[in-house]
Task: structure prediction
Amino acid sequence: MGNNSAHETDGGRRPQQQIPVVVLAGFLGSGKTTLLNHLLHRSAGSRIGAIVNDFGAIEIDALAVAGALGDSAVSLGNGCLCCAVDAGELDVYLGKLAAPETGVDVIVIEASGLAEPQELVRMVLASEHPGIVYGGLVEVVDAAEFDDTRARHPEIDRHLALADLVVVNKLDRTADPERVLALVGSLTDRAAVVPATYGRVDPEFLFDCRPSEERIGQLSFDDLHDHGDGHGDDHGTDGLGGSGHAGHLHTGYDSLSFVSDVPLDPRRLMRFLDSRPEGLYRIKGHVDLGPNDLRNRYTMHAVGRFLRFYPEPWAPADERRTQLVLIGSGIDTEALGTELKGCESDAPHADEHGMWGVLRYVQGSEDEPDPEPCGG
Result:
C-alpha cells in the first residue's frame, strides 16, 4: 500500500505518493513488539517508520540500520499515545516520518498495552496530512492467555470488532488452537484472522515491500540478517525466551491478481466491495470505469472496511485496463475472481448515476462519507 496515490484535481499531474499508517494494538504481553521487530527484520528493502510509547522496547540496532534514528522513529515516553497527544500533534509526528527525505514506505504506530485503539484510528483518519493514508488496525492477541485476558479486560471484544486484521499470536502455546481461532473469529467484524507464532506475519500482508535492490547505497535488514540460519530473527521479546525459531509458523496469505481489458461497471463494482467477504484484508490497484469516466483511472486503496478511490488522469501511453491485487487470509480466490469478472461491462454509454457510489469514496468529494474505519 506504500505506492498509493492522493488525488490531484487540476493540471493533469501525477498524484503525490501516500504512506500507509498502520495502528498496531494489543494488550500487554500479546507480542506487539515482537511482531514489529519481525517486520523490521523482514521488511524486504522497505523502510518502516515507527511511533512507539516505550522506545526501549524496540531494537535500537535494527532502527539504526534502517537510517538515522532521528528520522525513522518517534519516541513517546509519557504514557498512552491516545491520551498524550491530540490529532494535531499526531500530524506533527506523522509529518516528520512522512517527509520525502526520510524515504519511509510505511509508518507503524505501536500503541501502549492500555491504549484505546478506536481513538488512535480516529486520529489517523482525521489527519490532514496529504502524504499519509490509513493502513488498518492490527490487533494482536495472546492465544495462550486469551480467556484470561477477556476476563480481565472485557473491552477486548470491542477492540476485536474494530480490527481490520487480527493476529492470534503464541498459538503454539495453547492446547486448543482451533477453539481460540474460532472464538476470536466470532468476535470480529469481517476482519482477517491469522495464526502466528513469535509474531511472524508476512510483511506483504500489511504493506507493499520494496525490492531490496532499490535500496542502492543503503543496507537493508535483509543484507544484515542471514535468513537461512535461523539466527537474529526473534529475541524472546514476548516473554517466550530463546532465539532462532526459524522453523516455526511464518504466517502467509492468499492473493489474487485480477487483470481485465474490459471496463468495470461502477454499480457492480460497489456491490462487490460492499459485500466483500471475511478475511479479505487488502485491495490495491487501479480500475478502468470506461465511459463512466473516460479521463481518469481510479486507484483503489482498501484495507479492512476502509475504502478510498483516487482519480488520476490516464497518460497517453497507458493501457486502459483494470489491474487489482486482493490479499487476505482464507479467502476463496476463484470465487472472488468470478465476482470481479461479473463486474465487467462493455456498454458504450455512461450510466447517468452510476458513479455516485464510487465518488462517495473519493477524498474531497461532497458525498464523501465521514472518516470512519468501516468505510466499505
Q: What stands out?
A: The chain has a mean pLDDT of 77. Residues 234 and 243 are 5 Å apart (CA to CA). The two ends are 17 Å apart (CA to CA).
